[in-house]
Q: What sequence folds into this?
């Protein structure tokens, strides 16, 4: 029980910290469903919990 509370607290703290700064997520591939293409090495920029840019 204590372990679950500790894990929940850790996850909540991590999520709060991630929302307060800029995060850039990279991947090997992204599928553009509108264009029907695969994008190699995409980056998604998140600022204060909102996606602000999606690019290559």
A:
């Amino acid at each position: 029980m204590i372990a679950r509370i500790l894990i929940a607290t850790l996850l909540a703290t991590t999520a709060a910290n991630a929302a307060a700064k800029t995060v850039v997520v990279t991947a090997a591939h992204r599928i553009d469903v509108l264009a029907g293409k695969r994008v190699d090495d995409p980056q998604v920029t998140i600022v204060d919990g909102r996606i602000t840019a999606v690019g290559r």
